[in-house]
Amino acid sequence: MIASGSNLGDQNYVVGAYPASPAHKVWDPAKEMQLFDLLSSDERVAALEIPWLGSIHPHDNSWLIDNFPRNLQAIITSIPYVMSKVGKDSNYGLASANELGRAEALEDVRNIFRAIDNFNNTAGQSMVSAVEIHTAPRQFGDENALAKSLKDIASWNWGNTKIVIEHCDAWVEGQSPEKGFLTLEKELTAIDLSAAPIGIFINWGRSAIELRDAHRVAEHIVQAKSLGLLSGVIFSGVADVESDFGYPWIDAHLPFHKSDTFAFGDSHSLLTTKSVNDALDAAGKVEFLGIKMGWSPKLEGDVNQRYQMISQALDILNSCNR
What is the pLDDT at residue 227? Predict the structure, then answer.
């Protein structure tokens, strides 16, 4: 997760495991604990991404705070909650030119700030390495409004927690969006205008969705890196045709393309070993590096099988990360 040496090979990884967890949608604390135990025993794993849905856990905040592995860090992503709010209010978002919509989004980030403070105090240690924020609203985001929000957010005392914008697919005329937020260029401009210590995460799948081209994701990586703002690269897959995960270009965190080395893959996924190599060549050293992968809704799978999928994905990332 956090680079400990002079090259990418000296770091452990961020794992977004919740899309693959059998306890994410239907709460089962025993299964969640089993997955936590497997991940926390894997020396390649340094941090787990956890989804913000208005609280630090979708089902039981106290359970998460008590049981989150103390040898790992958490990275909080706000995207599930942001999308739930965008669906109800087209003015909602940190990049909204509508002050009421922007203020509501800021207050939601402040709620994350408060939850982290509670998590840290209860654990007796710093538990959250990063918070991923997002540049809603859809289609009508404004970089100047975002800059104001970033300046406000950065003024709070986050301690050891880094704030990053996770770039999602931008609004493209004539293209059906998954998110439809600000362009990467405007996000980078807003960071510059705010003069805030905020970085960018590139999610491989989300950039491919925007560009409609798996071979161009490195362009986003280079764009952020050239300004010294690339904080992390996370690998999620995507398909350009209908798959078990849904319609073409769905943002559903597909696993790697199915192969001899990745038995749990999806045959339509565009994410391959070459994709990882190309992205890492473009990125160079980054602070955060990892994977985020879902489990096919058409497959059964116990906790051990789901962990094996994650483990095989880490094998691929590790083999490329030399």
Answer: 98
